[in-house]
Specification:
Distance between the termini: 42 Å
Number of helices: 1
CATH architecture: Sandwich
Number of domains: 1
CATH topology: Immunoglobulin-like
Helix content: under 10%
CATH class: Mainly Beta
Shape: elongated
Length: 154
């Protein structure tokens, strides 16, 4: 009986956090490519993709990306895509020069800005058209999974 009473005396607590919103600001754009010639896009350039994560200010989040290994055109024709260990950047502002490079294939921890609650992800990659690559518009989908870790950031 004493344990039960002690449990009740301790009470219960919860902290409801704001949902994390993912806002796609710019698609990773390889532009025009020529058959047989690889084309890289650096995350820090105007052709790099950009996602904004919005949530509770100053909180840590865990980011996992599911990246397409191919981009497709109508009829199922594909073009391979690769991502190097430095093809992504995390920045508290919409400024890639203020960011930290990381491997987009790995889980990454980041901090939502203490003033705005935002965190920006910049993404680059390398497209590899084959020598016989068919003409057309190719596209793929990047999926971001973002969750709170429960930690606050310094």
């Amino acid at each position: 009986m004493a344990v039960f009473a002690g449990f009740l005396a301790g009470g219960a607590a919860a902290l409801a956090q704001a949902p994390i919103t993912i806002v796609p600001l710019r698609a990773l754009d390889f532009g025009s490519v020529l058959p047989g010639l690889v084309k890289p896009v650096d995350a820090a350039t105007a052709s790099g993709g950009v996602l904004e994560f919005r949530g509770d200010r100053g909180k840590q989040v865990r980011i996992t990306l599911t990246l397409p290994t191919v981009i497709l055109t109508t009829g199922g024709v594909f073009m391979p895509v690769q991502y190097s260990t430095s093809d992504a950047l995390l920045s508290p502002t919409f400024d890639p020069s203020a960011g930290t490079r990381f491997d987009p294939n790995a889980i990454k921890l980041g901090c939502l800005d203490p003033a705005t609650g935002s965190l920006f992800l910049f993404l680059g990659g390398l497209v590899q058209p084959r020598p016989t690559q068919r003409r057309g518009a190719y596209a793929g989908t990047v999926v971001a999974h973002v969750v709170y870790t429960g930690a606050s950031c310094p």
